[in-house]
Amino acid sequence: MWNLSSGTLLTTFVFPTIITCLAMDPAERMFFAGGGDNTIYQVNLYRKGEERGYVSGVMEDEVMAVGGGGSVADIGDGGLVFRGHK
């Protein structure tokens, strides 16, 4: 994943199979990667961090971007996987 305005590498995603297609969530919170072995991987681009405090009487969670700084994210162990699709 690249930052198009600066041209810098943000994160490299490593999948356990060849990826043949991608689809981005319209809100850009996640993307789906279709594998050559009939699997679809859901990759969340944000994760919940620690609780930061109360805002208007409701506990607010910190939302953090996944990766950054050229890090590598291995999708094989942590993502949601849909199997048996064609």
The level of helicity is under 10%
Give the percentage of residues in beta strands.
over 45%
As residue ranges, the low-confidence spans are none
Radius of gyration: 15 Å
**Counting H and I runs of at least 4 residues, what is the number of helices?**
1
Q: Domain count, please report it.
A: 1
Which structural class matches the secondary elements? mainly beta
Spatially, the strands of the biggest sheet line up as 4-5-6-10
H-E string = EEEEEEEEEHE
Question: If you average the pLDDT, what whole number results?
Answer: 75
Large-scale geometry: globular
* Span between termini: 25 Å
Number of strands: 10
Please give the largest β-sheet: 4 strands, antiparallel
Quick take:
By secondary structure, the protein is mainly beta. The chain contains 1 helix and 10 strands, in the order E-E-E-E-E-E-E-E-E-H-E.
Task: Describe, in plain words, how this protein is organized in 3D.
This protein is mainly β. It has one domain. The chain has one helix at residues 75-78; strands at 2-3, 8-9, 11-14, 19-24, 30-35, 39-44, 46-55, 58-65, 71-74, 80-83. The strands form 4 sheets. Strands 4-5-6-10 form a 4-stranded antiparallel beta sheet, with no helix packed on it. Strands 1-2 form a two-stranded antiparallel sheet. It has a two-stranded parallel sheet with strand order 3-9. A hairpin with a 5-residue loop joins strand 4 and strand 5. It is globular and about 35 Å long. 3% of the residues are buried. The model has no long low-confidence stretch (mean pLDDT 75).
